């Protein structure tokens, strides 16, 4: 599919991006989530400017992404170890 130009509003500022049409819905959803979290932080905490809020949102989502990647890696490692044990068991049966 082709490229599309979209305009997103984050923290009341417009951002124009060119993305693939497959990516477009993800960028819109990401924008919605960022703005929702900005509102949550602005309602809950004192801040000097929107930059503070944006930094906190970036930190939160980066932390969550890193944590999820680690959890996925650990789960994949468990699956690989389990599969290797099964293969080893099968090989041991053949050797007998």
Any overview of this molecule?
This protein is α+β, with helices and mostly antiparallel strands and 96 residues long. The chain has one domain. It has helices at 24-44, 50-95, and strands at 3-10, 13-20. The protein has a two-stranded antiparallel ribbon. Strand 1 (3-10) and strand 2 (13-20) form a beta hairpin. Helix 1 crosses helix 2. The model has no long low-confidence stretch (mean pLDDT 89).
Tell me, briefly, the overall form.
Answer: elongated
The strands making up the biggest β-sheet line up spatially as 1-2
Q: Tally the structural domains.
A: 1
Provide mean pLDDT, rounded.
Answer: 89
Number of strands: 2
Summarize the amount of helix as a percent range.
Answer: 55-70%
Distance between the termini: 55 Å
Low-confidence stretches: none
Largest sheet: 2 strands, antiparallel
Number of distinct helices: 2
SSE order in H/E notation? EEHH
Beta content: 15-25%
């Amino acid at each position: 599919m082709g490229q599309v130009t979209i305009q997103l509003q984050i923290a009341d500022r417009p951002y124009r991006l060119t993305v693939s049409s497959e990516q477009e819905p993800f960028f819109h959803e990401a924008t919605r989530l960022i703005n929702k979290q900005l509102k949550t932080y602005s309602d809950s905490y004192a801040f000097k400017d929107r930059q503070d809020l944006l930094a906190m949102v970036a930190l939160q989502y980066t932390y969550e992404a890193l944590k999820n990647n680690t959890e996925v890696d650990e789960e994949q490692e468990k699956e690989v170890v389990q599969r290797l044990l099964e293969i080893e068991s099968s090989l041991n049966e053949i050797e007998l």
